[in-house]
Amino acid sequence: MARITIVTSHPTLSQGGHLVIAQALERALREAGHEAEVLYTPEARFGALASSYWTTWRSDVRQVHSGRPVDQVISIRFPSYAVRHLQHTCWLNHRMREYYDRWVPFKRSLSYRNGLKESVRRQVVQACDRYLLTRQVDRMFAQSKTIQKRLAKWGGVSSKVLCPPPPQRQYRSDGYENYLFVVSRLTPLKRIGLIIEALNQPETAGVRCLIAGDGEERDALRMQIEQLGMTDRVKLLGRLSEAELLGYLSRCRAVCFPPLAEDYGFVTVEAFASKKAVITCYDSGGPAELVEHGVNGVVCSPTAAALAVGIEALMDNKNLAERYGSAGHDVARALSWEGVVARLVVS
What we know:
It is a single chain. By secondary structure, this protein is of the alpha/beta class. The chain has helices spanning 17-31, 49-58, 103-108, 112-136, 145-153, 192-198, 218-227, 242-251, 266-273, 286-290, 304-315, 318-334, 337-344; strands spanning 3-9, 35-41, 72-75, 88-92, 139-142, 160-161, 180-183, 209-212, 234-238, 254-256, 278-281, 297-300. The strands form 2 sheets. The protein has a 6-stranded parallel beta sheet with strand order 2-1-3-4-5-6. A 6-stranded parallel beta sheet has the order 9-8-7-10-11-12, sandwiched between helices.
């Protein structure tokens, strides 16, 4: 059995999906008989980003505290893939998106002077990433086709797709009650405001929706709900415990998750593991790869009107929601941590 270090960056006071992936992988490796531990490297952004790359590059991951050698390193995201090891596998969640697929809207938000500075930093970071991912990484996996395409487009980095399974939780289905469930960080890219707009359409009049999660848009979303007069049927639940999350997933009619160009999105596979259909959009990235329209969910245009039609289809038809949810469960079952370990670990 191997001694393996999982390396991922850890933004201060953040609980992103990459942390869930790292912890789930650690558990899967241990259950397979390996020694495994997660190493969290610093993540600074923009002007301080270089220091994060340098600190990570200088980190000694060649041996554990006892002096025994580490057999393999598995990195997850920027700048954790800057670590150096003779057996380095990268299972990429994402690079710094503001310097890649989110560059245009990011630059648009900057002053002329700051735009020039960030343009230079972007070139430097892209050059560093290209070198690290092609010269210091031995095997390259992307967690979705969306990530794989970005790697190829920016940097010409080739990779194989390996989708993360749902985290090892006690998923179940306790029925299909009359509420739509949303679980996400409340940030602009998750487009929770679009869901609220969709719930204000004629097709969704009366649809009850529970929104779990926290983030920078919480107050704005609360105000939007109040202004639209939907406080009686659209509720912000805040951050949930694992038991609460699994409970809401187990009982909802369907899950709505329409982010913009999501890297992967655990929400989709967690909904599927709970036998729940997912409503998403064509431009949602990872979720749109897993959701097959008319089979295990609804894939629609990213407009309030189109989303409302998709929501109505499942909220008005319990049997359809159950059938789609069952098909989604088949997708979740096909993704296993045993399979991930078999592909990531060097024999």
